[in-house]
Amino acid sequence: MKKHLLAAVSAAAFLSTGAAFAADGPLKVGVLATLEGTYTVLGEDGVRGLRTAMAVRGPKAGGRDIELIIQSTDASPDSAVRGARKLVEQDKVDLVIGPLSGSEGIAIRDYSKTQPQVTFLNGISGAQETTYVTPSDNFFRFNTDGAQWSAGLGDYVFNEKGWETVATIGEDYSFIYTQVFGFALEYCQAGGEITERFWVPLGTKDFGSIIASLPDDVDAIYLGLGGGDAVNFLNQYQQAGGDANLIGGSIMVDGTVLNSKGDAKNALIGTPSAGPQADTWDDENWKTYVKAYQDAFPPDQRFPSPSLLATGYYNATTAAMTCLDEVGGDLSDGHAKFRSCLANLELDAPNGKITLDGNRQAVGANFVSEVAEQDDGTLVTKLVAIKENVPQTLGIDPEVFAKIGLPSRETPECKSSY
Amino acid sequence: MRDFASRHPVWTVIILLAVAVFIWLIFAQWPKELVDVIGRKKVFLNAVFNGITLGGLYFLVASGFTLIFGLMRNVNLAHGSLYLLGGYIGYFVASSTGFWLLAFPVAFVLVAIVGIFMQIFIFRRMEGQDLRQTLVTIGISIVMADLMLWGFGGDFYNISPPSWLSGPMETLFVTGVKRSSGELIYLKYPVVRVVIFLASVVIGVAMWLILNRTQIGMMIRAGVDDRDMLSATGARIQLVFVGVFAFGAGLAGIAGVVGGTFQSVAPGEDIRFLLASLVVVIVGGMGSITGAALGALLIGLAEQFGSVYFPTYAVVLTFLIMVLVLAFRPQGLMGRS
Question: A16, CA 20 to 30 Å: which among A83, A346, A370, B61?
Answer without folding.
Answer: A83
